[in-house]
């Protein structure tokens, strides 16, 4: 039976989510204590409603989550963004990109520091081995269609955090081939646009064709 504290937290989250239009999940790795302190200051100064959450009880010293609630420009309903912070591992690669270019010469382009596509792909492959969420399968397909190289050295580095797992291409293909199509439909249709609603039927085969 859930405790009174947990029930209260569930009700609070339910009330906030009921007024949201979209939710975005993102993840940060390897932030220092100083950087985390700076982030909290920025959130407070921007008057953003956020809630600190543990990722998992046994990993509470390795990371935590924030759920941010705010009103986007010209929208009356709240939007939420969940940000996960992990202290468990440091990024192996780094890229700086212009995500949203625009034509105002007086303002510099916004730059985003991110993992390389190869490292993101390595993490998605690892995720398929230990949790296997449908969105991981879709992300694998998306990255492969962008000609992202499968870097086995990077994959081996990622798998070191899970000693009970071992990467191999035959096992990866087996995971893709045996994935439950009903689970794909149930999960992916929450996130994909309408013109992609039936894509789950061909997702597995498209990945297998690329992995040949």
- Biggest sheet: strands side by side, in what order? 1-4-3-2
**In percent, how helical is the residue content?**
40-55%
Task: List SSEs in N-to-C order.
Answer: HEHEEEEEHHHHHH
**Oligomer classification:** single chain
Shape: globular
Query: Major beta sheet, specifics?
Result: 4 strands, mixed
Terminus-to-terminus distance: 48 Å
Mean pLDDT, as a whole number? 76
Which class do the helix and strand fractions yield? alpha+beta
Structure at a glance:
With 212 residues, this protein is of the alpha+beta class.
What does this structure look like?
There is one protein chain. With 212 residues, this protein is α+β, with helices and mostly antiparallel strands. The protein folds into two domains: 87 residues, no CATH class; 95 residues. It is 42% helix and 19% strand. The chain is built from eight helices and six strands; from the N terminus they run αβαβββββαααααα. The strands form two sheets. A four-stranded mixed beta sheet has the order 1-4-3-2, with no helix packed on it. A hairpin with a 7-residue loop joins strand 3 and strand 4. Helix 3 runs antiparallel to helix 4, helix 3 packs across helix 5 and helix 6 runs antiparallel to helix 8. The chain is globular, with a radius of gyration of 19 Å. About 7% of the residues have low confidence.
């Amino acid at each position: 039976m859930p405790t009174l504290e947990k029930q209260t937290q569930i009700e609070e989250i339910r009330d906030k989510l009921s007024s949201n239009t979209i939710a975005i999940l993102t993840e940060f790795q390897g932030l220092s204590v100083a950087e985390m302190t700076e982030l909290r200051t920025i959130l407070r100064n921007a008057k953003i409603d956020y809630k600190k959450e543990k990722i998992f009880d046994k990993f509470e010293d390795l990371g935590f989550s924030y759920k941010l609630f705010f009103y986007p420009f010209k929208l009356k309903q709240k939007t939420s963004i969940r940000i996960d912070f992990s202290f468990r591992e440091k990024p192996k690669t780094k890229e700086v990109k212009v995500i949203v270019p625009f034509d105002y010469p007086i303002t510099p382009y916004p730059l985003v520091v991110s993992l390389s596509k190869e490292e993101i792909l390595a993490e998605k492959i690892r995720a398929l081995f230990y949790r296997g969420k449908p969105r991981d399968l879709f992300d694998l397909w998306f990255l492969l269609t962008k000609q992202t190289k499968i870097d086995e050295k990077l994959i081996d580095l990622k798998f070191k955090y899970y000693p009970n797992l071992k990467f191999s291409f035959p096992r990866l293909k087996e995971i893709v081939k045996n994935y439950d199509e009903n689970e794909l439909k149930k999960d992916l249709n929450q996130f994909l646009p309408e013109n992609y609603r039936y894509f789950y039927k061909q997702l597995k085969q498209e990945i297998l064709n690329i992995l040949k």
